[in-house]
Amino acid sequence: MNHPELAAEVARRRTFAIISHPDAGKTTLTEKLLLYGGAIRQAGSVKARKAARHATSDWMEIEKQRGISVTSSAMQFDYNGYRINILDTPGHQDFSEDTYRTLVAADSAVMLIDNAKGVEEQTIKLFKVCRLRSIPIFTFINKMDRTGRDPFELMEDIEQVLGIRSCPVNWPIGIHGDFKGLYHRDTRLIVLYSGGDHGQGQVNVETISVDDPGCPARIGKSYYDKLIEDIELLDVAGDAFDMEKILSGQLTPMFFGSATNNFGVEPFLNRFLSYTKSPTPRVAEGEGPIDPADEKFTGFIFKIQANMNPAHRDRLAFMRVCSGVFEKGMTVWHSSSNSRVKLAQPQTFMAQEHETVDTAYPGDIIGLFDPGIFRLGDTICTGSPVRYSGIPLFAPEFFCRVSPEDSMKRKQFLKGVNQLSQEGAIQTFKRPNIGREEMIAGVVGVLQMDVLEYRLKGEYGVNILRENLPFRFVRWVVETPRPLDRLRLTSTTAVAEDRAGRPVLMFENEWSIRLACENNEGLVLAETADRMTADEIDV
Ligand code: G4P
Known about the structure:
Bound molecules: guanosine-5',3'-tetraphosphate
CATH architecture of the largest domain: 3-Layer(aba) Sandwich
């Protein structure tokens, strides 16, 4: 059953993540968006947080900022009647599997690209996760005030590297550091560039129609001629703006601008909000899609953050509301314990501080106090039990052989490793032919190895020995034409199994992956796997 107020709250919500490579301008863009919403009064506060987090590559120092990073995990603000939730995707030293998992909670993504660099490594990784879910991806080419690559070249880069076609919504005028402004293809208006930070207020910009007879003189004859040529080329040879393709993630609308100069940000935000949809139904196993405006409350856990203080074992579980109304103190069914629990101390996140939340609607992110009951991918709901499909395991990229320094402490060691695997901080693998004692820890962000060492020592009293392994890729074996030990693989490739005993191959480079597929017809590898529930696995 639906009710009108709930439907209206759903309709005005937009929940998205910004995906980018470090230094493309994510912090700057986030800050500008928050300024538009009036969520922060002073420019610089998001940036100050980032500086505090990234001034060091020492994990302990980063952890000291943990309270800060919790606050910025999800930022909520109102703008033009919309309620916007921006999910933070940590990208510097704190890049980890959590960054991927966060994308599972987003309805769309903004792909931010540095105009001089084009598509970079971390953007590719995050893009792939968005692709898996077929969510709409909007491209913002940043730093247009500076010399960068030719816009056609950037379009080609996106297509070649990411395999997605792009459709420019606006188009830059001027080259090599002489940026004149943006031409908006939908309105045929040129917005002339003016540098400088325009703060919170509307950017006081000068516009001129491309059809205005004074236009060539205003922007310069050669730039005008070039623009007309570019527009024709885009109209004839470019992809048409196709809403269906955009919403299914097959075509990315492309925008240009400069975040520091607050230029092109507002037109981007306005179009992004009107093109993207409010939270769409999510599919529950055996139930089909559940309408967000359905009165039945449902949500799922996508991130668990442990408290680093050993004196406080409590954790914070991040939950995305999928349908119905969330209310403080409500009793819900919880999937992995198959029992009813009361949700105490829910928190919502604002740009400045987190506050206790009384009600939340689909698309919103809530932090739940977790005494240790929640697992990644858990569904919670009112009424009869439903389960959303779980959050996959994403392939780690750094691997270490780990063992307890004191073999008498093996039991605590296993207990700790088990706990950290359940939280999703690490994944574990074994090479069956190496012997029972071997344990390989795999992580997405290399600093997570320090987290493992620190937490095993602090919480379980176990000092560990770490030995780096040269692998950089793990792939789950979905199908194999012959037993794994008879596959034709490079000498540096290892056969192993994951925590649930599923076969995997570990590679040192992408070339070895390609060779494995070429030399073994019928071999099917996957970059993600289903997360198994706790009672199905044993370390
Ligand atoms: P990130 O979160 O993606 O890592 O990037 P961040 O916003 O911190 O931006 C990285 C650098 O790029 C910063 O410079 C920032 O000022 C600059 N930047 C962001 N957007 C633009 C833009 O539109 N034009 C230009 N020219 N630069 C931009 P920095 O030198 O690292 O820091 P700061 O001197 O600004 O403090």
